[in-house]
Amino acid sequence: MPTRDHSPRRALATPPRWHADWLSVVALAQTLSALAPQLRGKRMLDIGCGNKPYRAFFPHAQLYIGVDIAQSNAANEVVALTDNLPFAANTFDCAICIQVLEHVAEPARLLAEAFRTLTPSGLLLLAAPMYWPHHEEPYDFFRYTRYGLEYLVTNAGFEILQMQQQGGAWLLTGQALANTVQGITRRRTFGVRALGLITINTFFHWLDRVNYQSQDTCNLVVLARKIAER
């Protein structure tokens, strides 16, 4: 049985504005919230669920099963490797896999398992970063462009319905700056760090909205449908 634990996981979909992750995490949550109503199935699987920060986006799910490799996460019902899910084929109507793919050494195997456990025409909501500092080391293997995700998802037998990026180049710039400020102010700063992060987050959030530069992004979200048995 796997025993690897991760660094602390978020319990909420959105952190406070003074949090270093605020820019990218809020943008991700907004996209997931907007796409969630399309996943209308009653049986849902959360692959790499952590503390299930997005559970509230799916109130219609009558069965919501979280699987995670970390035994310390109280929220997951099943402890298992994401590339060897202990479920029968065609079990779930929908699945989500949010910010997990970069931590999987064989991402195609994870997608194959998602494909296997979904019913015909089942939906997969997948999110993965294009930018983020090293984290959960040494289990931090990849970053993804839209073309890399398209290749993996379609090769697994899915049809991509939508692909959206979260923020543009200005949001990425602000997120990188916030991560740097977080990293160099480890000791007690009497609120200076929080004030600095609020300023960075507010300014670059505004700048990303008024001068959107699509050539770069922090994150990508894919909504895909299982189209054929393999």
- Residue share in helices? 25-40%
- What is the ordering of alpha helices and beta strands? HEEEEHEHEHHE
Low-pLDDT parts are 1-7
Mind telling me the CATH superfamily name of one domain? Vaccinia Virus protein VP39
Radius of gyration: 18 Å
Q: Given the structure, what is the number of helices? A: 5
Reading side by side through the largest sheet, how are the strands ordered?
3-2-1-4-5-7-6
Structural class, by secondary structure, is: alpha/beta
Report the count of strand segments: 7
**CA(first)-CA(last) distance:** 28 Å
Largest sheet: 7 strands, mixed
CATH domain topology of one domain: Rossmann fold
User: What is the CATH class name of one domain?
Assistant: Alpha Beta
Report the average pLDDT across residues.
91
CATH architecture of one domain: 3-Layer(aba) Sandwich
Strand content: 15-25%
Shape, please? globular
Element layout with pairings:
Blueprint: H1 22-35, E1 43-47, E2 63-68, E3 78-79, E4 92-98, H2 107-117, E5 118-129, H3 146-155, E6 158-166, H4 169-184, H5 192-210, E7 219-226
Helix pairs in contact: 4-5
How would you describe what is shown here?
There is one protein chain. The chain has 230 residues and is of the alpha/beta class. The chain has a domain at 22-168 and 216-226: Vaccinia Virus protein VP39 (Rossmann fold), CATH 3.40.50. It has five helices and seven strands, in the order H-E-E-E-E-H-E-H-E-H-H-E. It has a seven-stranded mixed sheet with strand order 3-2-1-4-5-7-6. Helix 4 packs antiparallel against helix 5. The longest helix has 19 residues, at 192-210. The protein is globular and about 55 Å long.
